[in-house]
Design brief:
The protein has 144 residues and is mainly α. The protein is built from 7 helices and no strands.
Length: 144
């Protein structure tokens, strides 16, 4: 309950300060704009989910990080839909994978240099698997 009251106080403080600077119409348009962005993120969430699944399959991220990244994307989209400047700022920050990765890893950044190399190897193998080698023999009478 204490955290909710602290959030409510900060939300009112930030919203009043920003809306007094930019005006009522701009505040209304910002609320509509961020709600539209939040809804479009929720509609296109499957693309983000597929990118994260590809990163898991190439061992760029582990399963726990995969779950957290997707959770941050969903929560960030919902926060963008909720009116208020503080929720919009937090929701926008949650959409950037760099920031969410820092939160997930708690500032322990792992270097995955072999991730791109293994990804490129798998893509090249997929390209080579589509090639069929054939030899064309003509119906020349001289080859008999």
């Amino acid at each position: 309950m204490l955290y909710f009251l602290l959030y409510l106080f900060l939300e009112v403080l930030v919203s009043v300060n920003i809306s007094s600077e930019i005006g009522g119409l701009a505040t209304f348009l910002e609320i509509l704009f961020t709600a539209f962005i939040g809804m479009s993120i929720l509609v296109n969430f499957r693309t983000t989910l597929m990118e994260n699944m590809r990163a898991v399959s190439f061992s760029c991220i582990d399963l726990e990080e995969f779950q957290r990244l997707n959770l941050f994307t969903l929560i960030g989209a919902i926060l963008l839909i909720i009116p208020g400047f503080l929720t919009d700022i937090i929701g926008a920050l949650m959409q950037f994978s760099v920031i969410t990765s820092m939160i997930v890893n708690r500032y322990n950044v792992k270097s995955n240099n072999n991730c791109k190399a293994s990804y490129n190897e798998k893509i090249n193998k997929q390209k080579d698997s589509d090639v069929i080698d054939v030899e064309i023999i003509g119906d020349d009478s001289t080859t008999k």
